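User: Teach me something about this protein's shape.
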Amino acid sequence: MSEKKESKFKKWITLLKENPVSPKLKKIAWFSNFLAVAAFVLLNIVLWYFVSYKNYLLLDYVPVGIIIVPEILLLIAVIFPFLIKWGRKRTYISITISLVVAVALIVTSIWGLAFSKSIKDFISSFDDAVTTISNNSKVSTDDYNIFIDKTDKAHELSDMANYTFGIVNNYDVDDMHSVVLMIEDALKKPIKIKKFNDVAELAEGLIEKKCQAIIVDDSLMSMIVEAGDTTDDDNNNGPYADFSKSLKIIKGFTVKNELAPMDDPGNVSKRCFNVFLSGIDTGGDVTNKSQSDVNVILSINPNTNTIVGVSTPSDYYVPLSISGTEKDKLCYGGNYGIDVSMKTLSLFYGIDIDYYVRMNFTGFKDIIDELGGIDVESDYAFETHGYKFKKGMNKNLNGDQALWFARERKSLKKGDVSRSNNQMKVIEAVIEKTSTSSILNDYKDILKNISESFQTNMSIGTMKSIVKMQVSKGDKWKIHLYSVSGKKGVETTFSIPSMKQHVLIPNTKTVKDAKKYFKQNKFNKKIK
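Assistant: First, the predicted structure itself:
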């Protein structure tokens, strides 16, 4: 043994002799050490109780590393006191560490057991919400109504056996055929059908008595009301602005169709992927077909923790994926199905869009209220429906305030473009709020509203991967929001070719910039 090592050994022996540990203190030390071990075992039993719940459901959302790393650190904290209890002073330190660790672990275990039902309910409710959102994408529903003039003497369908029913030619042919069959089944006889080229001609046909009833869904009725409107300030100057007020509903029919699943590329934690966020603003079911009032593409790059959000105004004048070279309002694409809107934007920006998330904006109202309100920054000071919004940060907006903040365009300088910006800000504020602990308050109602207000083609596995990725990273995303712009115009559209109405002609520079931002994010470049 070298002199240096021998010297250290002698000092250690001397230290032990000068600081002897009494038998009683040794017993206390051993008891404390093994108490910490017992507490560690107890915690792992409780942890296993949660991890094994519903066939290891927790591990679908929480990375194993999140559990293993703290486990290793705790194990070190439990073992360390065994290694240092030499001499009276170090024995006291060993006892202190063991007792602190033991108390902390026992308290955590008791807390886990006390709230076990709530914790398991949260895990189960979260998984149920994911499953419901996934199931929403498997079906499309459409509510059709039979309308007649208010002055018509008919009160029920049986009074209309000899009526001529007007429909729009080539609009959702299969659904319309199903409705006609349901009407014929109810009347026990075939009905007379008259086809019109578009919704404006359909409305005119009822007014001019070319038919005595019309069969339309909510989307068609919205287009009738908007037909011929040449303004973009919500002051409808079209000839059919009050058309719906002159009608009465005789009977309604719901058509449900199973949707074929879209391909899911997966691997979302390791690649940049694009999501089309489509917002409908109706009070009905999220599975109902409706025009898309919010059209946002989110380019999400987990490698750089960057999200690029590009909003396209609902009145943007673009060719739909089903219209060839004919142009239409972007929002009308949603009337033909979410896949049409998704493909239209994919072609317009020259990018692949992997997923869609369709949300009912009205459902956001309840979610925001249950979150306790959101903070939204406004570029302008404006008033709408009794609410005042200042330029800058607007604190703690409730659901109704946030909804009108996102809806308003009449009092905004840039109209539909400004509305698109405000919609994105509401969405961003909700995302930020739900990423905090506030979602734990009234989480059942929040998750219920989320599940009822969202629809997506993401597989359950992909949704779980996104949650697991966020839990693992825990970082805040760098969010870059951008809106393309345009100039006001009045044109005919693919959906209503017989009448001109207001549209927004795309600004090619802003579209080019949006394409650039998508490309930069895809290839891990700085957004500039």
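Now, about its shape. The first strand starts at residue 139 and ends at 149. The CA atoms of residues 77 and 101 lie 7 Å apart. If you'd like, I can walk through any region in more detail.
User: That's plenty for now, thanks!
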